[in-house]
Amino acid sequence: MTDPLHQELLALAQEAAHKAGALLRDGRPADLAVAATKSSPIDVVTEMDIAAEKLITDLISEQRPDDGFLGEEGASVEGTSGVRWVIDPLDGTVNYLYGLPTWSVSIAAELHGETVAGVVAVPMRGETFHAVLGDGAWARGAWEGERRLACRSAAPLEQALVSTGFNYVTEVRSHQADVAQKLIPLLRDIRRGGSAAVDLCDVAAGRLDGYYERGLNPWDLAAGDLIAREAGALTGGRPGERPARDLAIAGTPGVFEPLQRLLEDFGAWHD
Fold first, then answer.
1. How far is residue 88's CA from residue 217's CA, in Å, rounded to a whole number?
2. 95, 101 contact by CB (below 8 A)
């Protein structure tokens, strides 16, 4: 039986993600990607990012004033309730800047350090993914009602479709490109979506067999990691470790371990 507190946290995360997603979708200027100066569109995106985080933290604080926060745009509050909210108000900033649809709002609730509820809203795809610890992963979209998510059945690595991401630091990107070049001949193909949270949810939904990335922060993966695991995927970092900034991996049971071994062999976690 699902813990009532977990369900309460999920409902609050769903409300906050929906409202923040609507703010970002409806508040984005139509000509944002073609603004006259380089700084202008970036400034607008930053303002939207900050506004979305404030909306989320204000809404949650009104109902749960003793909770803590960790957010990409600076929200850092030590709570007293044992609950901490880990928030990425706009995951996929460059996609948002250019008008591409793959950006998301990611909200996770931790209880005493363990993620117990997570929501990833993808407004431009009309989809919302969510999970509660021990209760499976679910999604709403163009289909009728809620759909329970399940990762793809095990496939050999050479038939796997795997997504990744690239860092903004040139030296790191170059190393990541070298790793991807080594991987490509060993996989079905590689994709680059641009939002870690969405990639993790796409593993959960069976749209990808695997995903890996270096350089992620806790807010990038907290909700998506729970959703992927609750859909039957395996997640981790370097062998024996949890997903971390060095490396985050998610995959079907048949893909995760061989992908992890290759990434370790290729030194995906360092320059």
1. 10
2. yes
Taking the alpha carbons of 259, 261, 263, 268 in that order, is the dihedral positive or negative?
positive
Cα–Cα dist 79/257, whole Å: 37
- Distance in angstroms (rounded) separating the CA atoms of residues 133 and 131: 7
pLDDT, tens only, 85-110? 999 999 999 899 889 999 999 999 99
- In order of 14, 37, 147, 230, 255, the CA distances from 139 in angstroms are 11, 39, 5, 12, 23
Paired sense of beta strands 68-71 and 83-91, if any? parallel
Condensed to tens digits (0 to 9), the pLDDT of residues 46-62 reads 889 999 999 999 999 99
How do beta strands 248-251 and 234-236 pair? antiparallel
Distance, in Å, from the CA atom of 128 to the CA atom of 122, rounded to the nearest integer, reads 6
- Predicted confidence (pLDDT) at residue 36 exceeds the cutoff of 70: no
Q: What is the pLDDT of residues 122-164, one digit of tens each?
A: 999 999 999 999 999 999 998 889 999 999 987 899 999 999 9
**pTM greater than 0.85:** yes
Q: Whole-angstrom Cα distance, residue 180 to residue 268? A: 9
Q: What Rg value do the Cα atoms of the chain yield, rounded?
A: 18
**Residue entry with tokens 């117990």:** 116
CA distance 28 to 34: 13
Q: Which helix (H) or strand (E) holds 77?
A: strand 76-77
